[in-house]
Design brief:
There is one protein chain. Helix 4 packs across helix 5. The chain has 296 residues and is an alpha/beta fold. The longest helix has 24 residues. The protein contains ten helices and 14 strands. The strands form four sheets. The protein has an eight-stranded mixed sheet with strand order 5-8-2-1-11-13-14-12, with helices on both faces. A two-stranded antiparallel ribbon has the order 3-4.
Length: 296
């Protein structure tokens, strides 16, 4: 390898230095979903990214979904997956499948992390009463065991982080009668990030980020203040699955999360590219008073 190539590697590390200094020992919540969960190469690289964040001083928490895998198992059981306004209709049998699948996914992620030399623990929102919830309705319709979060008790997360474990959380919660509920993973990640006052919340999605004009791929917004995000929503420029995601981002910022990132999980090492480089690749959402830090 030439001296120039080695120097370029050194430059990459130096560019990352101020970000490592700023976020050392800070909590970052990563909502892990989309293609990054179903493509084995992407899955391994996401885990490498998160493991690297931990090894350079971050305190990561992974919150994962598993919707496609749940649907596959529901179909294998002879049932047809059904959704209302984007929420899975979850009867008792589907709830049992969802809990089984999410537990399996969590243990697979633990294995990948452990293979890289970092200790990890897979838990659900039921463990330590991490996530308490109540029954959620969709437009007044009963959609079964789908939960709306009422409280997050992060003690188990703090305990795991203090003991140097990487927590991996599946979005299952319990109500006051200890019934199990399936929870939207975006909602779970936001609620956890709010409660632990995370420095960062990163969503891995199947889109590049937020666009001023969804039909114009050149209109990707690198950094977006909360007031600008609200304007985009009020103007009707945000639709589909991005609308609830962006509302979750705004809610997280309004409740103490420093920054929220929407990233394309299909890009290898998207987390590292967004967090450790000046340019970044996705959309960073910040509060109205925060100084710009990235994309300068």
């Amino acid at each position: 390898m030439s001296v120039e190539a080695l120097q370029e590697k050194a430059n990459v590390l130096i560019e990352a230095l101020p970000y490592i200094q700023r976020f050392n020992r800070k909590i970052i919540v990563v909502k892990y979903g989309g293609s990054a969960m179903t493509d084995e190469k992407l899955k391994i690289n996401v885990i490498k990214d998160v493991t690297l964040l931990k090894l350079v001083g971050f305190k990561p928490i992974i919150v994962h979904g598993g919707g496609k895998e749940i649907s596959r198992w529901v179909e294998m059981s002879g049932k047809e997956p059904r959704f209302v306004n984007g929420l899975r209709v979850t009867d008792a049998a589907t709830m049992e499948i969802a809990e089984m699948v999410l537990g399996k996914v969590g243990k697979q992620l633990v294995r990948h992390v452990e293979e890289l030399g970092v200790r990890a623990v897979s838990i659900s929102g039921k463990d330590g009463m991490l996530i308490k919830c109540k029954k959620r309705y969709s437009g007044g319709e009963d959609i079964g065991f789908v939960g709306e979060i009422t409280k997050v008790n992060p003690k188990i997360l703090y305990d795991l982080i203090e003991k140097d474990y990487l927590p991996i959380v599946s979005p299952i919660g319990m109500d006051e009668e200890f019934n199990s509920y399936n929870i939207n993973a975006d909602d779970a990640a936001c609620a956890i990030a709010r409660e632990v006052k995370a420095e960062k919340l990163a969503f891995l999605t199947d889109v590049e980020g937020v666009y001023k004009n969804p039909s114009d791929k050149s209109s990707l917004i690198s950094e977006l203040r909360v007031r600008e995000a609200k304007e985009l929503i009020s103007q009707g420029n945000i639709g589909g699955g991005m609308l609830p995601k962006l509302n979750n981002c705004i809610d997280a910022i309004d409740n103490g999360v420093s920054r929220v990132h929407i990233l394309d999980g299909r890009i290898l090492h998207c987390l590292l590219l967004e967090i450790f480089t000046n340019k970044g690749i996705g959309t960073a959402i910040i509060n109205d008073t925060d100084d710009k830090f990235y994309h300068e």
